[in-house]
Design brief:
The complex is a heterodimer of chains A (234) and B (240). Chain A is an all-alpha fold. Chain A is 79% helix and 0% strand. In chain B, 77% of the residues lie in helices and 0% in strands. Classes of the chains: A mainly alpha (234), B mainly alpha (240). The interface between A and B is large, with 38 and 36 residues.
Chain lengths: 234, 240
């Protein structure tokens, strides 16, 4: 049997941290993606411009650089803010910027940009007749968005969401670099202490492989379900 | 050097000649690392992609397993396994390989090459499989052999279809190369981390490097767009 030299439990805890990080980042990314896509498609030039700037900037910068900027820069900004609040209004406010929060913010922000593109394409793929029909029924704009656009858009967005999720999952490994004790960091410390890199890194790699393979199956199943009512051409 | 740049350099504490030189060294390392790994990865990926399209499972299976393993795990783990693992190979310290692999640059180059080769293999395979069946039938009707068909018909048209996806892979690799700084390589990100810890100035250190990466990214995007419109010019006849 695999002998992890007593590191088994902390590796497992690290794996749970990785999964939590991935899901929280996904939630943030989906929210940002939805906001970004609706802004990009809106008539308001300012909103559309802001969303385009956001997606362009994010795609130009490596995830690790952004993470370092958020982690080190975020704390400096919070410190300045708390100094200012204390001096000006006597408010005692402090907030520790930990690696987990920096990780969720960075990964969420990065994949929010990718989700924006996914959702934008999916919204455009919804038949315009559907929106017209909703108008004819007297649906309000919000009602049309929630009842007609979102449900029909999701089917088109699903493959893109799946791809982004797979990449996101692998990006979580980077948060170990800014000091989060996820499974990569536990494995790295154990590998250094025990001088046996293969013993610790290969199981971690296999956990990632299991996660990506499992997600692939789940997304395929969701996709099949979402497309039940669609007659394929050919 | 123009006067205003010189005065600006003299006026701020962080961007003096020494740190700018440090960034420059980092930029050179990043470009070397990314360019070499992409080149070697592409050279590896082409034969692998051809093997991957084989109908014989004994030939395509191992290639599938390789790409599956390298695409299903984070690059950071692959880097750690290679970087820490190579030193553990029994007796490597006595061979000449150790002269090469004790520098962190080469384990990183190996990890990046294997990773990008896996993704590129799948990209090329995808575009080979998408070759219209009629083109292959026509080539067969002309009596072309398998090798000639591959060289004259399949690969040129597959290359055109692959450019778009490959440009994404190139940019992905540029961004992924930032993790080289984790194994003590002073690439762009490594330079920024050094400068950050020296001056405790996160914004200056990391925003400067972010802008450099952005410039590199947009340069690549522009170059690939030019290449793509050149390769696909038969689809945009003059005047359209």
């Amino acid at each position: 049997m695999l002998d992890l030299k007593g590191y088994g439990p902390s590796l497992l805890e690290g794996a749970i941290v990785t999964i939590e990080l991935a899901f929280m980042s996904l939630a943030l990314a989906l929210a940002l993606g939805l906001i970004g896509a609706t802004s990009k498609l809106s008539q308001n030039r300012l909103l559309a411009g802001a969303a385009t700037t956001y997606t362009t900037l994010i795609r130009g910068v490596p995830d690790l650089v952004m993470m370092l900027l958020f982690y080190y820069g975020g704390q400096v900004m919070v410190n300045n803010l708390s100094d200012y609040l204390y001096d000006a209004y006597d408010i005692d406010f402090f907030f520790q910027f930990d690696p987990f929060i920096s990780g969720v913010l960075t990964i969420g922000l990065i994949f929010g940009a990718y989700m924006t593109e996914t959702f934008r394409g999916a919204f455009l793929a919804v038949d315009t007749g559907q929106v017209e029909a909703a108008k004819a029924y007297g649906f309000s704009r919000w009602h049309t968005f929630r009842r007609v656009m979102i449900p029909q858009m999701l089917r088109h967005a699903l493959p893109g969401i799946g791809n982004n999720w797979q990449v996101l999952l692998k990006t979580t490994a980077l948060v170990s670099i800014i000091g989060l004790t996820d499974m990569v960091r536990v494995a790295e410390q154990a590998a250094k202490a025990e001088r046996s890199p293969f013993l610790f890194f290969i199981p971690v790699a296999l956990v990632y492989l299991a996660l990506t393979a499992g997600s692939e199956l789940f997304i395929k199943w969701l996709d099949k379900r979402a497309n039940v009512g669609v007659v394929k051409g050919e | 050097m123009p006067e205003f740049i010189a005065t600006w350099l003299n006026q701020n504490d962080i961007f003096n000649a020494l740190t700018v030189l440090h960034y420059w060294d980092g930029l050179v390392t990043t470009v070397q690392l990314v360019f070499l790994s992409l080149l070697l990865g592409l050279v590896m990926a082409l034969p692998l992609a051809i093997l991957r399209t084989s109908k014989n499972w004994l030939i395509s299976g191992p290639v599938w397993l390789y790409t599956y393993l390298f695409r299903g795990t984070p690059l950071l783990i692959q880097l750690y396994i290679i970087y820490y693992g190579i030193a553990q190979i029994h007796g490597i310290q006595d061979t000449f390989w150790w002269l090469i692999f004790r520098e962190p640059f080469y384990p990183a180059l190996l990890a990046f090459t294997l990773n990008t080769a896996a993704y590129t293999t799948e990209i090329i395979r995808g575009s080979i499989v998408a070759t219209p069946a009629g083109e292959i039938e026509a080539a067969k009707a002309y009596g072309m052999s398998w090798a000639l068909r591959l060289r004259r018909i399949v690969l040129p048209s597959a290359a055109r279809r692959a450019v778009q996806a490959y440009s994404n892979e190139v940019i992905f690799m540029l961004h992924a190369s930032a993790i080289a700084s984790v194994v003590t390589i002073v690439d762009l990100t490594g330079a920024a981390r050094n400068i950050y810890s020296r001056f405790y100035a996160p914004f200056e250190a990391f925003i400067a490097v972010a802008l450099l990466y952005m410039a590199l990214t947009f340069l690549l995007v522009y170059a690939f767009r030019r290449l793509e419109s050149r390769l696909l010019r038969h689809q945009h006849p003059a005047g359209s």
